[in-house]
Design a protein that fits this description.
15 helices, seven-stranded antiparallel beta sheet, five-stranded mixed beta sheet, globular, 40% helix, alpha+beta, Pdz3 Domain, Serine Threonine Protein Phosphatase 5, Tetratricopeptide repeat, 14 strands, Glutaredoxin
């Protein structure tokens, strides 16, 4: 057993498995979508497709899947294994336990509030092919002209298309893609292109449909896109891999820090020099942004990692070509202050020459890299709670 798995076991304060336990109501649960092989949840016996029934005694359906948003010293999880008909009660520290969960479709039906417009919940219904609920909830979100510029329009069009109202559905999907799609994340653009390809095939343009599906897969590499491409070509596509994985980080940068009382020039080489073999160093590229929503969310996750996983991390550099704060985003900078107080090295660096950005060409902002002590990239992505455990395990003896 590696050091990371051994560490995960130390975070379990109590564990009880009860065979033959009754299954909780799916409408009160969240579904385990992904799990880190060496994380806390895996050590407790949790597996993909299990239910998360409750957290600290509250039904999981009432809680955000982003448990890292709140900081606690201890948590109690109630999972349920459907294949084994077994409840798993585990008390842990406040550490991120290494699972990605999402509401069940019955939970979304029971709790969705159209006034709050939750595109993620609508995408879960789409992925689960619950098109009846998708039409109902997206229509309520769009009622009286509200939220027409959001993915609710896309998902309403998708629900129409899937129910056979092809022209009406295609019209709404094209309206979303042409007018509003650039304002939203790439996964929604991929779903829209999926239907544009279906429409091209319906009109006899097979070659055009295939090219659109390939583009859709680049935007959103999920099974539904891959299956269409495989049927058309006989080959199943794979998600694009980072060109930097298992290569040295391409720029040995040295930049001045900012937003601190005593700025100093800090280099990547100096950050890596004192690291041990089983430590990682994080580099976050903001490119031309000073902050944005995904960056603020990453800092909430990093807060948990820096609090509980600090033995495995040497620090974090955030590189940006813009030093000036945006006037309306103080809550972003509060996240930075919270991370700085934790003591694990955290520095904002002014990438004044944009050399790293122009060399790496990050696909979005933020782009997060984890480097080992040699400067080799062992991870690139969003660094969610499964990714972090898996990355640490990859360098743990």
């Amino acid at each position: 057993m590696g050091r990371v798995a051994e560490f995960a076991l130390t975070q379990i304060k109590a564990l009880q498995r009860t065979p033959g336990a009754p299954m909780p109501r799916p409408a009160q649960c969240q579904l385990v979508k992904r799990i880190a092989g060496h994380g806390v949840a895996a050590q407790a016996g949790v597996a993909p497709k299990d239910f998360l029934a409750a957290v600290d005694g509250q039904p999981a359906s009432r809680l955000s899947p982003r448990l890292y948003m709140t900081h606690v010293a201890q948590r109690t999880y109630s999972f349920y294994s459907r294949p084994r008909h077994e409840s798993i009660e585990v008390v842990t520290s406040g550490i991120d336990v290494g699972v990605i969960v999402e509401p069940t479709t019955p939970a979304i039906r029971a709790t969705y509030n159209p006034k709050n417009n939750d595109p993620t919940a609508l995408e879960i219904l789409w992925a689960g092919r619950d098109f009846e609920a998708l039409e109902d909830l997206s229509a309520k979100t769009l009622q009286d002209g509200r939220e027409r510029g959001s993915p609710a329009l896309l998902f309403h069009g998708a629900s129409l298309y899937e129910s056979g109202r092809l022209d009406a559905g295609a019209g709404e999907i094209l309206e979303y893609l042409s007018k509003y799609g650039s304002n939203w994340t790439m996964n929604f653009g991929g779903i829209a292109r999926y239907y544009v390809g279906l429409e091209a095939r319906r009109r006899g343009r097979e070659a055009e449909a295939l090219e659109i599906w390939k583009e859709a897969f680049q935007y959103h590499p999920v099974d539904r896109m891959a299956e269409l491409i495989e049927k058309a070509t006989g080959q199943r596509p794979s998600p694009p891999a980072s060109v930097w994985l298992q290569r040295r980080f391409p720029v040995d940068y040295a930049y001045p820090s900012f937003d601190v009382p005593e700025p100093q020039t800090l280099s990547l080489a100096d950050a890596l020099a004192p690291m041990s073999n089983d430590q990682l160093f994080a580099v976050c590229l903001l490119a031309t942004y000073r902050s944005n929503g995904p960056y603020a969310d990453f800092l909430l996750r990093w807060n948990n990692y820096a609090t509980f996983l600090h033995p495995f991390f040497a620090g974090l550099h955030v590189l940006t070509s813009r030093k000036e704060r945006y006037p309306d985003r103080e809550y972003h900078y509060e996240r930075e202050a919270e991370v700085r107080k934790l003591g694990l090295p955290f520095h904002l660096l002014h990438e004044h020459d944009e050399q790293v950005m122009m060399t790496v060409l990050p696909p979005g902002s933020p782009a997060i890299f984890l480097l080992d002590r040699t400067g080799t990239v062992v991870y690139q992505g969003d660094l969610d709670s499964v990714d972090v455990w898996d990355a640490l395990a990859s360098v743990s003896a």
